[in-house]
Amino acid sequence: MTVEMVQILKPDGSLVNSKIEPKISEADLKKMYRVMVLTRFLDERGLTLQRQGRIGFYVTSTGQEAIVGSALPLQKEDWIFPAYREHAVGLFRGFPLKVFIGQLFGNSEDLNKGRQMPNHFAYAPIHYVSISSPIATQVAQAAGAAIASKIRKDSAIAITYCGDGGTSEGEFHAGMNFAGAFKAPCVFFCSNNQYAISVPVEKQTAQPVIAEKAKAYGFPGIRVDGNDVLAVYQVVKEAVTRAREGQGPTLIEAFTFRMGAHSSSDDPTRYCPKSKLEEWSQKDPIKRFKTYLISKKLWSEAEDTKLIEQVKQEISDTVTEVMKGTPPSLSSMFEEVYQEMPLNLQWQKEELLEEARAKGEFLDSSEAFPL
Amino acid sequence: MAQLTLLQAVNDALKTEMKKDDRVVIFGEDVGYVGGVFRATEGLQKEFGESRCFDTPLCESGIIGAAIGMSLYGLRPIAEIQFLDFIYPAFDQIISEAAKMRYRSGGQFTCPMVIRTPYGGGIKGGHYHSQSTEAFFAHTPGLKVVIPSNPYDAKGLLISAIRDPDPVMFLEPKRLYRSLKGEVPEGDYTVPIGKAHSVCEGTDVTLFCYGAMVPVCTEAAKKANGQGTSCEVVDLRTITPLDMEAILAAAQKTGRVVIVHEAVKTAGFGAEISALISEKAMEYMKAPILRVAGFDTPFPYTLEHVYMPDSVRVLRAIEKVMKY
């Protein structure tokens, strides 16, 4: 009962079989590639900013950028319920770089108004739903959004992302079961990067193929090479089509590897064998896609060098701009707890503002964030 | 005596009890191989083996549900929840099951287990790595809620919690994990659950606090002392069962009370202490009972330092009750 792994590009960038090559416009291919490269350098800069103490925390998606393939089949009306390694999906769908970097700084440039830790993005114009730290909560919510779309007879579908660790949570079961029972237009995308912080996937579940779990909910489960952007695109496109045509949900397991740490606070050398990193660096999704684009004569080394320069400059300029932002105001802390501020908060706000002048120095945290 | 951090004291307590009692097992997310994200269980798997200290799937309801099953069976499980903020998938297991097992079975079944979890703010953890929701658990009969504020108490209270016949929520103030060291005896000793401790004696104002607010109150007391106001600082150490006698005695002694916690003010545990004093010792009060607490907002990220009570805010309250 093994599910085969869908692959279109071999790790060396050549096609497994030219008959299954998806038809994607040159512009879309190049846009996906650009977002992958942007994400990679954003991660590099994010970690540097964290180490310099300019931001408090950062989560990379290095090695998992081929997830961008899941963004291309989506339409404007669709809803995205992300976990926290879907930077490329957001950026492809139209998450502005300035909003992304603004969130990292939590200052006046942050749409979330400095209320969440870095990497907890939200961007309503593209239905990129606010990320929280508790694991897999979004899976059940995505099922709800998909059911809502069905109730309203809309064409929107919902896609949600989680990791291999997320599949152990109750909400993963709840969300999959609801979506199956309601035949809701929902795509469940599980990035199996083989580690939940330090815990390897073998300890997470006795089922070695996560895609198999779909059987229990009565809909298809597909396993795809998560480092092959074309294969990711292809399987998500089929799942999105099924969802939009009223055929119900699909579970996609993207088999991949977290090339970096869980977060800026984690050290994977404590638990992940070096050989695994070496093995997976041979399967780098960006290198693989680039080789394909060059072989199609759509890309060149010279263009690549130029792109990298451009992307780095864009990140650098945006960071500089965002850093000009100011800290959120004291009163902003009391706003948007509710639509209307109740009396207890009004009193507390007035009291704080009164005391603000008499207040002491900034109390720094005693240690770095551990996760 | 060794100088240990609070985190090392927790590790030492676990080691001490695991050596002494082979029914003690500890588990949770990232707890086994790497020894926890804060390293509280570091070295335990190596020393006691994978059957005594192990990683679980990422599922809090499973962790607590399994701990309940193990405790019913006769083990002494210690379940680690990575952050108190992540405990809610397990809320049903804690509130409906562990807390009520003894009562609902007429004492036939019991859940002697410990739920260890880091809690509280001060490490730039945003909404989901900072909250202090001890009141949820204090509001549930059947649970004990223990909160140490220093390395000595952390070890002694944790050993007591492991030996306790009832389920204990052991909330570890993560802000204090590595920020202070203290003398911790080697080997076996206990600090009793349900007993408050007077950190410093005073005659004008009594400060009630627990966890990471104890050093904040001590600092405020020092500042107040410089202004000629003598403060008593009482570390509650356990919020359920509450050391009511010690609280009433300390409140009556000064007649002025300030209660400090970092949890949200409304329906926070401070309200309970205030009500207790109002009911039992109103005639001794020379000023209204004040609370210094977190605000009634979700825990903010950038403005964390404003949200968390500090010695300046505590001092303002001390001045207010003195001026009344």
The CATH superfamily of the largest domain in chain B is identified as Thiamin diphosphate (ThDP)-binding fold, Pyr/PP domains
What is the name of the CATH class of the largest domain in chain A?
Alpha Beta
Determine the N-to-C terminus distance of chain B. Answer: 45 Å
CATH level-3 fold name of the largest domain in chain A: Rossmann fold
- What class would the helix/strand composition of chain A place it in? alpha/beta
What do the pLDDT scores of chain B average to?
A: 97
CATH first level of the largest domain in chain B: Alpha Beta
Using only CA atoms, what is the Rg of chain B?
19 Å
The secondary structure category of chain B is alpha/beta
CATH superfamily of the largest domain in chain A: Thiamin diphosphate (ThDP)-binding fold, Pyr/PP domains
Strand order of the largest sheet of chain A: 1-7-8-4-3-2
The total count of strands of chain B amounts to: 14
* Uncertain stretches of 5 or more adjacent residues of chain B: none
Helix content of chain B: 25-40%
Q: What number of domains of chain A?
A: 2
CATH architecture heading of the largest domain in chain A = 3-Layer(aba) Sandwich
Task: Please give the radius of gyration of chain A in angstroms.
Answer: 21 Å
Largest sheet of chain A: 6 strands, parallel
Describe the structure.
The complex is a heterodimer of chains A (371) and B (324). Chain A is α/β, with parallel strands linked by helices. Chain A folds into 2 domains: 5-323, Rossmann fold, CATH 3.40.50; 329-371, no CATH class. Chain A is built from 11 helices and 8 strands. Chain A has helices at residues 26-51, 87-93, 97-105, 137-151, 170-181, 201-204, 229-244, 274-281, 285-295, 301-323, 343-356, and strands spanning 5-6, 79-81, 158-163, 186-192, 195-196, 199-200, 221-225, 250-255. In chain A, the strands form 2 sheets. Chain A has a 6-stranded parallel β-sheet with strand order 1-7-8-4-3-2, sandwiched between helices. In chain A, strands 5-6 form a two-stranded antiparallel ribbon. In chain A, helix 5 links the parallel strand 3 (158-163) and strand 4. The longest helix of chain A is centred in the first third of the chain and has 26 residues, at 26-51. The mean pLDDT of chain B is 97. In chain B, the strands form 3 sheets. A 7-stranded mixed β-sheet of chain B has the order 3-2-4-5-7-6-12, with helices on both faces. A 5-stranded mixed β-sheet of chain B has the order 9-11-10-13-14, with helices on both faces. Chain B has helices spanning 6-20, 44-48, 60-73, 91-98, 101-104, 134-138, 151-163, 213-226, 244-254, 269-281, 304-307, 311-323, and strands at residues 2-5, 24-28, 53-55, 76-80, 114-119, 144-146, 168-173, 181-184, 197-200, 205-209, 231-235, 238-240, 257-264, 290-294. In chain B, strand 2, helix 2 (44-48) and strand 3 form a beta-alpha-beta unit. Chain B is an alpha/beta fold. Chain B folds into 2 domains: 2-184, Thiamin diphosphate (ThDP)-binding fold, Pyr/PP domains (Rossmann fold, 3-Layer(aba) Sandwich); 197-323, Rossmann fold. Classes of the chains: A alpha/beta (371), B alpha/beta (324).
